[in-house]
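Hi everyone,

Forwarding the result from last night's run.
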Amino acid sequence: QVQLVESGGGLVQPGGSLRLSCLVSGFTFSMADMTWYRQAPGKERELVARITKTGSSTDYADSVKGRFIISRDNARNTLYLQMSRLKPEDTAVYYCIDDMSLRHDAWGQGTQVTVSS
C-alpha cells in the first residue's frame, strides 16, 4: 500500500523559511519521479516543483523559482522542499506525489503552510 506522509508545515512570517518532508512507502522510491503540489483555499491544485528519480533534474513553477528547492534522499525514501523568502501567496496545503499515485488521484493528507504576520 502506497503511503505519502507530508510533514514540516506550519505558521511562518513573510520572508521566513520552512522545510517540508515527504516520507514514502509502498513502492520503490528511487525509481519514481516525484512532484510537490499545493492547493490554496478556493483555488485549484498547482504543481510547485518536480524532481527526477535520481535527482539529476528539477523543474519549478515560475512563482517559486529562486525561492524553493526540491531534493530527495533515496536512501531514506524521503522527498524534501526547502522553501525560503516565503510570501503570503505561498499559503496552501502542500502535497507530494509520484506519477502512479497521481494517475489514480491518490493523495496524502498534505501539510499546511501558512505565511502571515
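DSSP finds one helix and ten strands in the chain.

Cheers,
N.
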